[in-house]
Amino acid sequence: MKKYLIIVAGWCIMLNACKQNVQNSSQSLEKTSQNSQWRGPKGDGIFDETGLLKEWPADGPQLLWKYEGLGDGFTSAAISNNKIFVTGLSGDNLMLYVLDINGRFLAKKELTEEWKQGRDGPRSTVRIDDGKLYLYTAFGKLYCIDEVTLEEVWKKDVLLDFDGQNIPWGLCESPLIVGDKLFITPGGVTNNMIALNKSTGELIWSSPGESTVSAYCMPKLIDDQTVQMIVTSMSDYIIAWNSDTGEKLWSFYRTSEFNNHPNTPLYYNNMIFSTTGDGAPAVMLRLKNGGKDVEQVWQNPEVDTQMGGAIRVGDYIYTSGHKNRFWVCLDWHTGEIKYKVRDIAACSVIFADGMLYCYTERGTMNLVKPNPDTFELISSFDITLGDGPHFAHPVIHNGIMYIRHGDALMAYAVK
Fold first, then answer.
1. Which residues fall within 8 angstroms of residue 255, CB to CB, at 6 or more apart?
2. Whether the predicted pLDDT of 118 surpasses 60
3. How many Å apart are CA 323 and CA 325, to the nearest integer?
4. DSSP codes, 3-16
5. 353 has which bridge partners?
């Protein structure tokens, strides 16, 4: 009898230990899973990573895996719960692919017509928020999909439902989500910017803004003023809205030859930096009256980043040009160019653990040390897989750098 009780007690201890292990594993997964949006946690190109390599081997960091067969497209990888979500063109339609963290195919879901009118394929990176995936097509179809089941939760035809107007290269905006609101810009006369309930798709507010068509960028949240605001570029203006009510707070006239404006504004300490291609000058604005007004601080006609973004490190901006094809470092406060070089011009740039990651339109991946006094190129290697333009922005997650080029997604160990 005593032996039996000892065995039973042993099994109880083992069962409790197993339960605790399962709970610990679940809690660990919950801690490591996170929402995901284009260009990092705050949409500013800065990734919260540590312990990354400060120099790469001569032939580049180790290629952990590759996945080919995504089809055309320019979207970056979105990552949540150890799964990777990326979109591509399949025939005429948008296809969502799901891979595990080791690059193994898990699932795919075909949605609706996607762009095939030059530079074919999807542009808008998947937004992940609270277990839901948000996909936006170049034709303005907005989907909310369950992250686990891939079942449709709701959808909107943003252009049709809100009298919006498409733009020459198709909509490229990735949705911005703040709290329970999803912000998107139909670019209509009446519904210039809208806020939807992220759970239901129902309209919360709509604003006529300046009644201009949208641009190609994701909006930016600014939440350290007396009023929380959403700032974005439209075809002819930089505009700010009250995020709660949709009231237009201010607008600043800024246009270019083709009104592309593909870059989300950068924000730091009451100042907003915006740069666009087609030869238009970069501009720095300063918020006044608690964010209810704005004034120009400086502009620089030599800086005309088209779609590669910019990074602020300390008091300096690092970015590249489009018509003025230079890599430049400029002073955040004055707009003064500290130096400009042609070594890696025209590239998408992100930042992590003290280093700049610059992926050029020629297909070279560069590791650069930010230095306002001189250009410091540390390491480089070429991306040889995939095809088409090198436009997708890199992503760094848990020490792995993900690069998408056409139908290929590659994972490199950079830690």
1. 235, 236, 280
2. yes
3. 5
4. HHHHHHHHHHHHHH
5. none
pLDDT tens digits along 323-362: 888 999 999 999 999 999 999 989 999 999 999 999 999 9
Count H helices, E strands: the chain? 2, 33
Q: Which domains does the chain have, with CATH numbers?
A: 47-72+307-415 (2.40.128.630), 75-122+124-215 (2.40.128.630)
Spatial separation of the C-alpha atoms in residues 408 and 335, rounded to whole Å: 38
Q: Which two tokens stand for residue 188?
A: 């209509």
Pairwise CA distance, residues 137 & 144, whole Å: 12
Phi-psi region of 69 (alpha: psi -120 to 50; beta: other; left: phi over 0): left
For the record, the structure tokens of 243 come out as 């995020």
238 forms beta bridges with: 233, 252
Which amino acid would we find at residue 94? L
DSSP output for 115-177: --SSS-S--SPPEEETTEEEEE-TT-EEEEEETTT--EEEEEEHHHHTT----TT---PPPEE
Amino acid at 30: E
